[in-house]
Amino acid sequence: MISVTVYSTGPGCMRCTLTCRCLTAASIPFTVIDLTDQRNAVHRDFVTDELGYSEAPVVLVEDDPQHHWSGFRPDLIARLAESSLAQGSQR
Question: b vs e for 38-54, b when ≥16 Cβ sit within 10 Å of the residue's Cβ?
C-alpha cells in the first residue's frame, strides 16, 4: 500500500480540500499535515526549502522527494490510483 502525505494550508484552502476529497474518492489513504500550525514548522521548511514549493497543497508519495506535486492535480491522483490498483493485483 502506498503512503501519501498532503501538506495543506487548512480547510480554507479549496485546492487542499479538493485534493483530499479526490484521494478519498480514489480510496487512497493519506495523512494531512497543516502547514499553518506552528508545531509543523519543520514540515513547512521541508516543503519550501527542500521541495521548493510556495503554494499548497503539496502531495508527497511514499516519502519520496522525487514523487511529489503542488496544486490540485486530479490527473495525477487518478494515475496514482491506477498504479495503486496495479500494485494490489500483483500481490
Answer: eebeebbebbeeeeebe
Query: Is the whole model's pTM more than 0.85, yes or no?
Result: yes
* Cβ(34)–Cβ(5) below 8 Å: no
Contact status, residue 57 vs residue 15, Cβ threshold 8 Å: yes
Q: For the domain that residue 28 is a member of, what is the CATH number?
A: 3.40.30.10
Segments forming the whole domain that contains residue 82: 4-89
- Give the tens place of pLDDT for each residue, 33-55: 999 999 999 999 999 999 999 99
Which residues have CB under 8 Å from 21's CB, separation 6+? none
- Give how many domains the chain has, as a whole number: 1
> What grid cell was written down for 90?
500483483
